[in-house]
Every structure is written in C-alpha cells, then in structure tokens.
Write a structure and sequence with these properties.
Strand order of the largest sheet: 3-2-19-17-15-4-13-14-16
CATH architecture of the largest domain: 3-Layer(aba) Sandwich
Distance between the termini: 27 Å
CATH topology of the largest domain: QueA-like
Number of domains: 2
Mean pLDDT: 94
Number of helices: 7
Largest sheet: 9 strands, mixed
Number of strands: 19
CATH superfamily of the largest domain: QueA-like
C-alpha cells in the first residue's frame, strides 16, 4: 500500500474496499458508502477531538532536548495526574519514529520543561520510553499550555506540518484523543444526510484514541494501550432499536469497536464510562458490532489484528492483496475498508 502523504480528509478520489459477509470483495468509492447500509441500521462514530499532544521541551536534569507525546489517560478522560507519555530525544516527526533517538535516561522525580508547561516524571514504566507524568497546575492551565505549545502528533509519511484542524473529524467534540479517530475523516454532513434519507440512524460515543506507533518494538507490540471511553444512554438506546428491527450496528473505526465490545463484554451493552483494556482479535466473540468502516491496515499492526474478529485469515490475506493491487493509500489520510462480520458458510448471503 502507498502511504497517504497529504492531509486531505475527504479527497474526491478516496477508495473503499468492501468485504461482504460471505467473504466477497468489491471495489467502490468512499463517497458511495451509504449504498452498503440499509434502513434500520445504526452508525456509531467516535466524537473525540484530537489533542495537540506533541510537546517539545527540555529535560531539566541534563538539559537534553526531548519530545513528549502524550499517550493515554491513566484513569478518566481529561485527568492530567499521572497521564501516560512516550518520550523521545532530539528531533521531530520528520525522522521516522523507529529511528528517533531515545530520551536521556529518565528517573522518577525528573522535571520536564515543555514550553509553558512543567511536568514531573512520577513513574518509569516498561519499556522505559513509556512514563507517567504529572503536570503542574490545574487542568485549566494544562489545557491552555497545550493550546499554546502543543502540536498534533505526526509521522514522517506526511511531510508538511499538521494543523489542529487537519486531525479533527467533522464530528469532533470533547478533546479526548491523542491521535485522530481517523475513520471518521470519511464522514461529512452530506453523507450523514444521505444515510438519514435511507433510514439509517446515527449515534456517537467518546473514546480516547491513543498512539499508533512509539518507535519501540516491545511497546508497539502492546498497543493499543488501555483507553477510557464514555457511551451515552442515547447510543445504547439507538443500538437496541436497531437490533429490535433487524438492523445492523456499523462502527466507524476500531476505537468504536473497542468501546462497544468492552462495554458489552460482561452483560448487555450499558451506558457510562469504562476503560477498554482488551485485545480484540480472531478469538474475540463480537457481541455488538456487525460492520466496521476503517482505514487500510498492514499485517502485524494491532488494527489489522482486530479485523481478525470479523473475518478469517484467508479473507484478510485476500484483502491485503486487493489493497496492494488496487494501489490503496494507507495511514490516517488514506483510503477505507468496509468489513462485514463473517457469517457461517450456511448463512452467508452477502449483504
């Protein structure tokens, strides 16, 4: 696949690879997404706005230059006490993440100057590139510091500096995500209007999407880290209505799958807050989600592994071959895949 190198959320030529419930593959345009949904279905999207979570600064004890990438809330969304971060040495996104130099050796109690913000390293985690930070001041001052000094987390495949509006989806509401829930880039108000006209309902949740890469193989193998979420009661009701009339639940992005399936893992889907700490893969029984709209993902990534809960490995390999042959673009500004949960052979009837 070809890395998408321009921050265009909804290019006119965006592609959509469709994996039907019977294992069939077809190529479409992303603008034609609504044709694959039907009356009674419900679309659930992540409304998290993306935080400017990359902070350049200095390690006070050594004077070394560092970049801190906020990576996760340890408890609830918006709690800057003990939030997780990945710390790099000098450089920025123009260097591939896996080639970034390590930060100076960090110790609990070390202080970091991050523009107008000051933070203390309260815990060194495993691997040591991952730390827990506690910011000085209350939440209001931290939000102000992020607005003044923070940049969107960015990777080398996009050469131009990203602005904050580049990484906000059209649905962006509470600031909660450290990287964009980028499947939502495919949506716009015209799509929503078309879906409503087809009798497809709409719902949202908030899920704190974390980092997609850290440059450390051991840490990357643990991704995604635990991520808090909040599911409104209205969303639970919308899912129940769809189920009652034979409709399907369509997740816009892997974060929505994680939140819905975690909230339903012990009992019926419930509203409220939680922390998605599960790893979804081939052995995971899906209780809520029937279809997933997501980006194009490469084998070996956690997002690709999650697709194994929807379809078997043979279908995933066929999907990868079709993406390569069709020159689909990957990463957050790339093309899309619509995946239906695979049915047993006797029940496979396509869409």
């Amino acid at each position: 696949m070809i890395p998408a190198s321009a921050p265009a959320q909804r290019p006119a030529d965006a592609k959509l690879l469709v994996l039907a419930a019977d294992g069939g593959l077809s190529h479409a345009t992303r603008a034609g997404l609504a044709a694959y949904l039907r009356g009674g279905d419900v679309v659930v999207a992540n409304d998290a706005a993306t935080i400017p979570a990359s902070l350049a600064g200095e390690h006070e004890r050594t004077g070394a230059t560092v970049e801190v990438r906020l990576a996760g809330w340890r408890s609830r969304i918006g709690d800057f006490e003990g939030c997780l971060a990945v710390v790099f040495g000098e450089g920025d996104y123009r260097t591939r993440t896996e080639q970034r130099p390590a930060a100076p050796v960090l110790r609990a109690g070390d202080r970091l100057r991050l523009g107008p913000l000051r933070a203390t390293v309260v815990d060194i985690l495993t691997p040591p590139r991952l730390v827990a930070l506690d910011f000085d001041g209350g939440s209001a001052s931290v939000w102000a510091g992020l607005a003044a000094h923070g940049r969107p987390i960015q990777y080398a495949h996009v050469p131009q500096p990203l602005d904050l509006w580049d990484v906000w989806t059209p649905l962006a509401a509470p600031p909660a995500a450290f990287e964009p829930p980028s499947a939502g880039f495919a949506l716009d108000w015209r799509t929503r209007s078309t879906l409503r006209a087809r009798g497809v309902s709409w719902a949202t949740l908030t899920h704190a999407a974390g980092l997609s890469a850290t440059g450390d193989d051991a840490l990357d193998a643990r991704l995604p880290l635990p991520e808090p979420y909040e599911i409104p009661a209205a969303t639970v009701r919308a899912v129940a209505r769809a189920r009652a009339c034979g409709g399907r639940v369509i997740a816009i992005g892997t974060t929505v799958v994680r939140a819905l399936e975690h909230a339903a893992s012990r009992r019926a889907l419930r509203a409220g807050s939680g922390v998605a700490d599960q790893c979804i893969g081939p052995a995971t029984p899906l209780r809520v989600v029937d279809l997933l709209l997501t980006g194009t993902h490469e084998a070996g990534t956690s997002h690709y592994g999650l697709l194994g809960a929807f379809v078997n490995e043979q279908t995933l390999r066929a999907m990868s071959d079709a993406l390569d042959a069709g020159q689909y673009r990957t990463h957050e500004f790339g093309d899309s895949v619509l995946v239906a949960r695979e049915l047993p052979c006797a029940a496979a009837v396509g869409w």
